[in-house]
């Protein structure tokens, strides 16, 4: 990115960044921003673990899905805005840090949501983050003529939805589930409308890297669950063997999920209006599943140590379902378009086998075996992708604009 002249306030005009910019990678600020999500994801995963262990399966999963939406939507909005308008000046950094503060406050409000159904702190902190981003969109609208309509649409749409979020806190508790679903739909609609009004530039390689980094954060939670299994094994001599097996299974599965996620280059998928929206929005399920996997492993540890209301083999679904969702999500979004018939048969079949593993009358280690088999096939095959030039880095708007939540 060429250095832009500073104003008298030492601000850089927030003009669209070049989507063809060579060597574009995550900035130090973006990496710093990601750190607060480690906290939020960890707390959400812990609370899901507690709900599942106590046998509150439907309620726990539903609450986790809502809370994780707030975490994911805050991250994805910043990420797609940054790929288009990151200036790196002091005001941009300051407003990003405000959003980070909002994430930390949101993280502190996750436990009351699970325990008392108190959404006030989560909603207020979420709105704080969204209004900070509105300020960024207004800066972009002021400095950039080509993307002004889209930027103003974003600013207007986000503001209206945040007012509705605040209003929802005044409604009866019984109405909140339906209202929240409506507001989530409204949040997801704003980028669709804004991008149809002109669109914003994007950098496929940068976005692919950013999504990969967030995937690593979530998979890191699973490695923590593996370490916890070893810690519990040292305390519970009677369950030493099964706990060590769960620890090994978690490491193998996490490595397998990492291999599957990064098998095909993601930037080829970020190409055109429809495919890019599918990639961005579809990652909610991939990321949520990755976060839930660590909770599922913690549930299995509780079952083995006699501290859970759940019982085998049903308790094992707490981790096999997230694994299957993760695998199917990555296959649908990234692998399927560039894979041959063998890969497109093996990956979904492997996900199905993992899903039903708890009802197969053999040890749960079969999940690890299934993942290893899938990875072996991936190693043997190669993705069918075209050279990067002329694909993901083509001019935007050729397919009617592109998503930048």
Quick structural overview:
This protein is mostly helical and 405 residues long. 70% of the residues lie in helices and 0% in strands. The chain has 2 domains: 28-196, no CATH class; 204-380, I/LWEQ domain (Up-down Bundle), CATH 1.20.1410.
Summarize this structure as a short list of keywords or feature phrases.
membrane; mainly alpha; 2 domains; Low_temperature_requirement_A; globular; I/LWEQ domain; Low temperature requirement protein LtrA; 70% helix; disordered C terminus
Protein model, in words:
The chain has 405 residues and is an all-alpha fold. The chain folds into 2 domains: 28-196, no CATH class; 204-380, I/LWEQ domain (Up-down Bundle), CATH 1.20.1410. Helices cover 70% and strands 0% of the residues. The chain contains 13 helices and no strands. It has helices at 28-53, 57-85, 90-108, 110-116, 120-143, 148-168, 176-196, 204-235, 240-261, 273-304, 317-335, 341-356, 366-380. Helix 2 (57-85) packs parallel to helix 5. Residues 388-405 have low confidence and may be disordered.
* CATH architectural designation of the largest domain: Up-down Bundle
Q: According to CATH, what is the class of the largest domain?
A: Mainly Alpha
Task: Note poorly predicted spans.
Answer: 388-405
In the CATH scheme, what's the topology name of the largest domain? Answer: I/LWEQ domain
What's the domain count? 2
């Amino acid at each position: 990115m060429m250095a832009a002249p500073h104003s008298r306030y030492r601000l850089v005009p927030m003009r669209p960044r070049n989507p063809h910019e060579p060597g574009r990678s995550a900035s130090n600020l973006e990496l710093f921003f990601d750190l607060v999500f480690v906290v939020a994801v960890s707390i959400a995963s812990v609370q899901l673990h507690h709900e599942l262990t106590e046998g509150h399966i439907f309620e726990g999963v539903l609450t986790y899905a809502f809370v994780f939406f707030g975490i994911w939507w805050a991250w994805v909005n910043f990420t797609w805005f940054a790929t288009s308008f990151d200036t790196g000046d002091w005001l941009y950094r300051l407003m990003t840090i405000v959003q980070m503060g909002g994430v930390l406050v949101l993280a502190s409000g996750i436990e009351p949501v699970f325990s008392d159904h108190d959404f006030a702190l989560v909603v207020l902190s979420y709105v704080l983050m969204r209004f900070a981003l509105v300020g960024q969109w207004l800066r972009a609208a002021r400095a950039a003529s080509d993307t002004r309509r889209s930027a103003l649409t974003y600013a207007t749409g986000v503001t209206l939805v945040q007012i509705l979020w605040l209003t929802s806190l005044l409604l009866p508790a019984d109405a909140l589930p339906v209202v929240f679903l409506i507001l989530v739909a409204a949040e997801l609609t704003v980028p669709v409308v804004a991008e149809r009004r002109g669109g914003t530039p994007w950098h496929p390689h940068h976005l692919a890297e950013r999504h990969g980094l967030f995937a690593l954060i979530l998979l890191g939670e699973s490695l923590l669950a593996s370490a916890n299994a070893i810690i519990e094994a040292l305390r519970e001599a009677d369950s030493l063997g099964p706990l060590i097996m769960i620890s090994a299974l978690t490491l193998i599965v996490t490595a397998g999920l990492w291999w599957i996620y990064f098998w095909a280059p993601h930037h080829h998928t970020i190409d055109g209006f429809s495919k890019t929206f599918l990639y961005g929005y579809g990652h909610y399920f991939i990321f949520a599943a990755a976060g839930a996997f660590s909770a599922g492993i913690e549930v299995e540890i509780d079952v083995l140590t006699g501290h859970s209301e759940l019982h085998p083999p049903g308790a094992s679904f707490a981790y096999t379902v997230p694994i299957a969702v993760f695998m199917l999500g990555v296959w649908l979004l990234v692998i399927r378009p560039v894979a041959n018939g063998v890969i497109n048969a093996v990956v979904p079949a492997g996900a199905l086998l993992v899903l039903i593993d708890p009802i197969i009358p053999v040890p749960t280690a079969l999940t690890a075996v299934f993942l290893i088999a899938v990875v072996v096939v991936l190693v043997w095959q190669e993705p069918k992708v075209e050279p990067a030039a002329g694909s993901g880095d083509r001019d935007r708007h050729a397919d009617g604009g592109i998503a930048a939540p």
